[in-house]
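hey team, just a heads up i'm posting the complex here instead of the shared drive bc the drive is being weird again. everything in one block, sequence lines first with there labels, then the predicted structure for the whole assembly after. its two chains so it's a bit long, scroll down
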Amino acid sequence: DIQMTQSPSTLSASVGDRVTITCRASQSISSWLAWYQQKPGKAPKLLIYKASSLESGVPSRFSGSGSGTEFTLTISSLQPDDFATYYCQQYNSFWTFGQGTKVEIK
Amino acid sequence: EVQLVESGGGLVQPGGSLRLSCAASGFTFSSYTMNWVRQAPGKGLEWVSYIRSSGSTIYYADSVKGRFTISRDNAKNSLYLQMNSLRAEDTAVYYCAREGGGVAGTCFDYWGQGTLVTVSS
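-- predicted structure starts here --
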């Protein structure tokens, strides 16, 4: 099974900050990685697919990069609506999620 | 507008059974692969099961294999999850999720709002 490890688990930041979340796969997954945003009591929302492609309707301040085993999600300028939990997901072999990164207000 | 609406959750005793449903609308359901994903209270996301558009291919997570059965009725635009021999560790919000397909690959582009399953005596 492919394991996904996100860091950090929690991130404290302010509006306007540049934020980076890292996701590592236990083996190469090529570019088959997605990022989701989840707010309390809500379903996850797809932000990024295939490591770096922005889902339609998602603000351009979100970007993804990486391939193989190391990936990053970057929010260029954190907005109030971005305080949430973010999950990476590999879909190279079945589907596995990272444990999540909670972005909270500093 | 794509909509996925789950139902059927509730409180069930250990060893009991429950059937979840997911009603789809706003897209051609029969053309899309579907999945179930769950989230235990305060925990992360766990993929549970997959069913291809035609129903011809099905996968399960090891944690539910032999106890859960995924199915679909394309005529009714509905996805199902039959859950038997339920355990306390199956307590979670269960989401149905559509596979995006195409250039995006097999990630999940639309999710329902979820239905809570609580396994407790």
